[in-house]
User: Fold this.
Amino acid sequence: MSLLKEIGDKGAVVEWSPLKEQANLVALGSKDSTGSGFDDYGSELELHSLDLCDTSSSSTTQIGVARASSRFSSIAWSKMVVNRQAFPYGLIAGGMVDGHINVWDPYKMYNKDPDPLVSTISQHQGAIHGLQFNPHIDSSHLLASGGADAEVFVLSLDRPEAPTVFIPAPPPSNAKHTADITKVAWNTQVAHILASASTNGTLFVYVVCELP
Assistant:
């Protein structure tokens, strides 16, 4: 095993680009006061380009940056196939420690747009440790989130500027975690199946019947 690239002095969550034609891009969301965090509560989302064919240098090229008012706890990147024309680089979502989910347009970041933030969703009360976009093409606009408030939500970003939020197991179901959510994961074979895990060892599997 050998080191190809290195981004130093970054306490961050990281996500590779899901786009085949932009597979050399990586997103970093700062999660502590080292590196790019600009104060004890704020942070930055950075886009880096990695030339993996250049083995003479371990450095990367920062190609975009956006500030956030809270630190990152999780990060996810979607192809947004259902709205690819409007978002050619997809969408990046950040689960923040203050309970917000921020959604950015990486194409705007790449082109130095001063306002790449698309929307902010205020649904959780506490850090969002679980965050994942649906991996299926027709459902790539669906984002699952799980937080320290023991809540699990599914967000529809078919209109990213006005997301729709719903509960995967609504009443009369009693399926509800009683501890911090650590992970959410969509099934890679069936688009409407979602799992969530919590710190008390409980795992829930949902059949999300009414996908938007």
Observations:
- The chain has a mean pLDDT of 88.
- The CA atoms of residues 49 and 55 lie 14 Å apart.
